[in-house]
What does this fold into?
Amino acid sequence: QVQLVESGGGLVQPGGSLRLSCAASGRISSIGTMNWYRQAPGKQREWVATIRRDGSTDYPDSVKGRFTISRDNGRKTLDLQMNSLKPEDTAVYYCNAAILVSTGWGNYWGQGTQVTVSS
It folds into this structure.
């Protein structure tokens, strides 16, 4: 059974920084593209960042230049460094990954970690 577990959320003042982490565990053969998403109260889930196995990255304009996604393929971890945080970044942040297990590729989600940006 594959699990993705996020950590690192919390309360931070506007302009501050947080670093989120996501650890994958279980009978994993390989991990493909990994993503961060977020969902604010009353809103749809929103894409935040993507990193492919080769290390290439993509971001939406809303976080570009402020957020940095990274991964460690050996440790099976995914990070999101968030700088210059704004109140509108407040949301539950989810780790997502394409993971190869014995039965084939699957799309997996973590349980989410709350990020609150407020003074």
The chain has a mean pLDDT of 97. The two ends are 40 Å apart (CA to CA). Residues 33 and 54 are 9 Å apart (CA to CA).
